[in-house]
Design brief:
By secondary structure, the chain is α/β, with parallel strands linked by helices. The protein contains 15 helices and 7 strands. Strands 1-2-3-4-5-6-7 form a 7-stranded parallel β-sheet. Strand 5, helix 10 and strand 6 form a beta-alpha-beta unit. It is globular and about 65 Å long. The two termini are 22 Å apart.
Amino acid sequence: MIASDVRLVDHHCHGLLFDALPADEFRLLATESDWLSIDGTETLDSPFGLGIRSRCAPLLGLPRHVSIADYLARRDELGAPEVNRRLMASTGTDVLILDTGFTASDVVSPSSMTVELGIGSAEIVRLERIAEELAPSTTASGFLADFREALQRASASAVGFKSVMAYRTGFDIPDSPFTAAEVEAAAAEWLTGTNPEVGYRLDHRVLLAHVVWEAVALAKPIQFHVGFGDSDVHLHLSDPTRLTGFFRATHASGASFMLLHCYPFIREAGSLAHIFPHVYLDVGLVSHYMGASAGFAVRESLEIAPFHKVLYSSDAYGLAEHYLVSATSWRSAISRIADEWLADDWLTTGEADRIVELVAAGNARRVYELGNHGLDDRVLEARRLDGSR
């Protein structure tokens, strides 16, 4: 396969769990649903379940296509740290760009991921999380200045930001920032309308748009969750074409916008990446949940977007199985596509190698300026796909 040896920069992912997992907790982490399957059915009787049994099982010393029950028993026998090391070494990943804003489980930090796995890491900071952590100590009149200061502090160590407004109001960003008076009024509504004992969840449409506009001013990559996700998402409100006016207004801002996942809006995201020079896309998350069908998503991502606008990601969370199935699915899919294009004489072998490397790592290194953070080929120790040095 043309992509078998290319090294990956996973531009959107999350930390792993290194503690033992009961079987049903594993199953919940292996689905975007908040609930296990009912009536005696198996939650992992799914495309991702097939990926675990066919791609991950041999790396744990099991026969391919072993049952889920036997896989989970072997996983428990080896222990999560050993499973994580085996599966992650086989992903062929050099850098993990980790979103640290989702902490539903005790996933480890970027620095711990590097120590445990020997893989370089960088951090993406969630805009909503900054506001939520600020809420107990700010006021309506002070929110704008306090958030701006907190954002500047976070920016010092982060390679970019992320918004999960798709989970809160959907994509509802005006073409220009709100005024200071509008932000103060919105902050008053949010702060007074929240019970501090329950916790702060940024769900005010004005403030959600405001924190994105504040991040635009810092001219760093900003990730948007798009499309498929857990039960909080109102799918029709997360169509990225709802951001068209915002992208038009920010095309000269210096900020880049990374459309994550995009299923089932992959072609919409590709169209936006084709039109706007600062818009990019990936098909992470569904790269493991689609299992054997992941190639359809990868193919759609390459239909109309320029090749320098498409990135690899896994959106793995908690489980190394997410990382491994995503990486193997992506490698297989893009290799198959490149072989077809070569057979039809659309490009040369050298061009195929160049395009695959751009998507695998080059685009992420460029957009996130990883060389400026010490995460480039001069300082990363090259590792073969089997994890040996």
